[in-house]
Specification:
This protein is of the alpha/beta class. The protein has one domain: TIM Barrel, CATH 3.20.20. About 45% of the residues lie in helices and about 15% in strands. It has eleven helices and ten strands. It has an eight-stranded parallel barrel, surrounded by five helices. It has a two-stranded antiparallel sheet with strand order 3-4. Strand 1, helix 1 and strand 2 form a beta-alpha-beta unit. The chain starts with 6 loop residues before the first strand and ends with a helix.
Length: about 300
Amino acid sequence: MPSVQPIAGIGANLSHVGTDLDAVAAQLDELVALGADCAELYASALGVVVAARPIADRVARLRRIVAERPLACSIHAPIPINPMDREHTALHRRALEASVALAAGIGADVVVIHAGRTTPALWAAGAADLLAFERDELRRYAAAARAAGVTVAVENISPNPAVIAGRETSYSLDPSALARQLALVREDGLTGCLDVSHANQGAGLQGHALLDGCAAMGPVTRHLHVSDTTGEPAPSWLPTPSDMSFFGVGDMHAPLGTAGIDYDAVAAALRPQPGTRAILELAPVSRPLLADSLARLRGFADRVNALAEAA
């Protein structure tokens, strides 16, 4: 058996905690009780950073909460961070650096960001220049992460309401394109985050193959986001995960086994880097199926690891 398995731990995001750090502790305890190895916290929902500066006493309390539990934690940085936005570069850098500082401050070792987005018009006018600009920004992000002992994981985006409405686009709707971009950066402190549900939605929108994207991302991936979805994009007037889940479209963040992704096939296609963590992302409305989905995620991780051992 490999000394470090491809998937080294499974866990879940937190839900409905807001700024209540007691609720954070309770949900981490729930994950421990369900046999999870890791957890992911959303940075801007915790009330621990203001004006891109961590609030020392709240960060210290959060660090104690994390340290008292046997879970490896990651931070999902604010989704609006955009390494392809030339107009607001300083703001994005500041938010990224604050997210890295928060991660280091609580003992988390991964910060997830979304890949770059832009308008369709700007993309059509200069895709190569925008990709080069993003690579430079990602190198800068990686340097900040290395200095803090943290890794930045770049995630493929979903066809969100802005994409569906035609206001935004991203090359990372196809995970294969994100894999190519990350391979060009090649920096310590930077890795990929494959969101399998996002990849399925991107495939539904653009017609590429989900499994091809998963296979391409494997060599540059050390973080996974996992949930279920039909792959059918949501109309722009349907923005919330609970309604998406009800209708069966968009970024549902649905329980595993409920919406159609063939995770056995994904396991066969995916070869992530050793030490990858798999994070279940459930919408609050799906939280009652947390235990079942974690059990299914454990089975998925075991299949990925068994296939790697047999290869």
